[in-house]
Amino acid sequence: MFLCKRLEGVGMSSQTVKLTSKRQATFPAQLCRELGVEAGDDLILERKKIGGDVAWILKPKKRIESKWFGALQRYAGHKKHDMESIRASVGKSIGIAKQ
Fold first, then answer.
1. Is 44 a domain residue?
2. pLDDT tens digit string along 67-95?
3. Is residue 28 part of a domain?
4. Taking Cα atoms as reference points, which of 60, 54, 61, 3 lies closest to residue 32?
5. Are 25 and 18 contacting, i.e. CB atoms less than 8 angstroms apart?
6. Which domain holds residue 51?
7. I need a labelling partner for 75 at 20 to 30 A (CA). Which of 3, 10, 29, 63 fits?
């Protein structure tokens, strides 16, 4: 966990984040590079009490990085994924036909 991610040779500094009327935030490009985030990435905000003050900690949500992630997509891509279809498929596999 970190309060401020520092680059080598760069001390703590403040950055301005603009919030729109729809509560969407615009982050400076340098801050995004330091955090290692891109458009569409999820960020986590944690509320902490530090010395009697409330501080918010911002960090990127960890991405799932695995060579197995999505490996079975080619087998499931053409199938329906609603609960009724899943139950019917499981029932067919274990020998219980849907009436």
1. yes
2. 776 777 777 777 777 888 888 888 888 88
3. yes
4. 60
5. yes
6. 18-60
7. 63
Grouping H, G, I as helix, E, B as strand and the rest as coil, residue 20 is coil
In a domain, 34, yes or no: yes
Total number of domains in the chain = 1
Q: What is the pLDDT of residue 53?
A: 92
Q: Is the pTM of this model over 0.70?
A: no
Beta carbons within 8 Å of 36's beta carbon, 6+ residues apart: 60
| DSSP secondary structure of 33-50 | HHHT--TT--EEEEEEEE
Q: CA-CA distances (angstroms) from residue 86 to 27, 69, 73, 78? A: 41, 20, 15, 13
Read off φ and ψ for residue 49, nearest 5 degrees: -105, 120
In a domain, 32, yes or no: yes
- What is d(CA 59, CA 5) in angstroms, rounded to the nearest whole number? 9
